[in-house]
Amino acid sequence: MGKGAVTAGLVDRLPGLWLSRSWTTRPRRPSDAADAYVFVDRPTFEAERDRGGFLEWAEVFGNLYGTPVPDPPPGADLLLEIDVQGAAQVKRLRPEAVVLCVRAPSRATQEERLRKRGDDEAVIARRLALAEAEEEACLAVADHVVVNDELGRATEEAAGIVEWHRSRRSSSSPRPPPAD
Asked: The pTM is what?
């Protein structure tokens, strides 16, 4: 029930969103949907990276993750489900990008979600040890923060933010942003 669940809810709720599928070298978890990532080996990932095939990429806990250079359909809004390192890279390349930081309501909830998705104890410990620093980095790059305390509410809030930004693009009259 993390950022992936909010992302899936946005895609279901808002027409015109095009979700880019990230690549990763990590093994597929039992809880991963078949299309959660493009799962590849390290040499395949590195070859794609070296040919300039990624908008952003990072190494996280020994695994590589990257967003292919996007090619959304005309008129679609690009949606990326990426970590804070990737968000910072995208924001540098595309300052107009809107970054939503989706965070758990507490460390205890974050730990519970990591366990439910099948991460091993070493990964859980590393993720929790870095959680504060990652959250601070996310807040530094984010345009909006959504606390994912209840999936339906968090998805609605994120959808409202997307709709507000869409309306700003199509309207010359500015409106106040949604509350964060």
From this structure: 0.83
